[in-house]
Amino acid sequence: MTGAEIISGQKDGISARNVCRHYRMGEAVIRAVDDISVEVPRGEFVALLGTSGSGKSSLLNLIAGMDRPTSGSVVALGHDLAKLSRDESAKYRLRTVGMVFQSFNLIPSMTLIENVTLPMRFAQIERGQRDNLARQALSRVGLGNRSNHRPTELSGGEQQRASLARALINQPQILLADEPTGNLDSKTGTEIMNFIREFNETLGMTVVMVTHERGLAERYASRMIFLADGKLVADQQNDGIGPNAGFENTSSLRSSL
Amino acid sequence: MTELVLMLVSRTRPRLGAAYERRVLKFQDSAELAFRNLRESLLRNSLTTVGISVGVASLVAMLSLGIGLQQLAGRRLQKSGLFDTIVVTSRRDLRGFNREQDENGPAPAESPALDETARQKIEKLPAVVEVYPDIRFITDLRFEGKAHLAMVAGLPFSARTNDAFDGMQGRYFSSDDAPEVILQKVFAEELLGKLPKAGGDGTNVAELAKPLLGKELVMRYSERTASSSERGGDGGAAYSVTSREQTVKIVGIADLDPDSMRGQARARVFLPLKLAERLRVVQPSDFRDTTRNAGSSPAYNTVSARVKNPNDVLAVEDAIKKMGFNTFSIVDATRSLRQFFAVLDLFLGIFGSLALAVASIGIINTLVMAILERRRDIGIMKALGASDADVKGLFFAEAGAMGILGGVLGVALGWTIGRVINLGTNVYLKRQHFPPEQIWFVPWWLILGAIVFAIVVSLLSGLYPASRAARLDPVQALRYE
User: Could you tell me the pTM of the whole model?
Assistant: First the structure.
């Protein structure tokens, strides 16, 4: 596809090369992401750490295909995201990545089942299958009996579980989470993180999580990348948990996808 | 959890390949999402839809008024018998209505005779309903011992639908050769010795009818009877002229003039055509025939051909001219009338569309508001993988749904307004002693057209909001909590 992909050798993972994202705000130029290069192999659980304004969310948006770099390249699963057309990047977001947000971002006027069904509508999954799949996904995250409730009728933890079900409904290979526990108490936060870890381990799904809680990153992520002022300041393996205990067991399943 | 994994894994569908095929949200999905969005801001969307329906209603109302008036005028013209009739004359008469016709065609002396054979030939032309000879003569009519001179004309039985007889007192001829007459108001006044009042049609027909209906007139005329040499047929025609009398009963007094097309030669007394033919009254052309070696059968002065539809007049006229006769019709009048209504419809349509234009601004406003309101929802959808076309489709579907609803409601509303106005007009017409008329007419194509137009206008109005929504940057849309 592109030279960048071949050079990176990361056909299954994510590779950012000298990626910059600059915003112009009046006279000033804000360097949200400033010349970051990073390789994330398939199946890794990476935490992007930094204070607010460090550029971690901007980097996540670039990997999500929601934003385009000012310069440099982001290649995910062989797709050079900067070179995709608008349609192609929409499809990339639909098929390849699943996103979880701090504020859950469920559509308030829709019930949980409608929210979970929405990505399948865009993916043109057959109508007959959709409801069934959405119901199964909701019951697996413990919301089987709440599928006809609206998000406002649910607790934060429940909303985040629903949004996890929605993020995974189109079987993405990459899960991107932006402060997934930021609006939750520590008990429900743990619940959510356990789900994410399971997806990472059982599906071999690559996870990139933005957080400002170092403790959380240390407990769940296999690798921690520290950002400050848009620059990468540290990149370390997290020996505390060891890389993906369950990954080996499911690699055969993955390859059949 | 493993079950979820298996469930997700077992689904087979094409993976994201190097080449991306284009894909757009299915129509049914767009429609479903659009209707749920419309339900979310029910009041605002209802008001917008009502706005469209008022626009459509005004368009339907204006256009159906124009169409109704045109049909009314058309019906009137058709009934008048002026616009579906072609007057045919022989070129031998050397007095065509139209000079140019004489220039291209056989010389008058060689042109065929306008006799019974020619009449039957013309009657066989397509779109011709009937062809009848024009029999008229000036003669003496005695009423209560006093003689009156008048132009008498034969009327075909089909002329009873002519609107000249709308305000008639009495009745039409009982049959095509009954010894009955219908008088024109002017002659009725003369019989009764009433002078027509200057500057107005003062006398009431009903007043004239009372002393005249059922009374008898004695008509004196000269009959053309065949002489022995005519029967022998050795070239010239010869006949005898005998004075006869025929008693006829007055059955009707016509208010309007059924013979107005004739100008100076208009008749004041009308006989059933068959009776008039049977009388064999000497015609001016008979004198010419005697010198002209024209064969034995008597020729007609003029015959009138009635066609099915005023639109057929030109074609039939051409065919008759090719047969070597002169023709005359008032088709030009209908042409300019049609032009007038085309312009009227255009202007009514423009005024009607103005309301729809205002309504379309309402749609734009509503959808732009919806974008501001649903900014975050649009951002979420785009983050989940909705393409520009998906988002555009959603807003188009919403605009289209409002257009369909507004169009249907508007047609219903416009139709109701039309019914009410029809009803009101007829109450008014009844009070003025006029027969009821349908001045409001909604043809089926206008119903369909108005709905389609409403949808098209709504979709056009949705263009800007839809493309604005599609261009929304998901990062921006999701940035603010």
Answer: 0.67
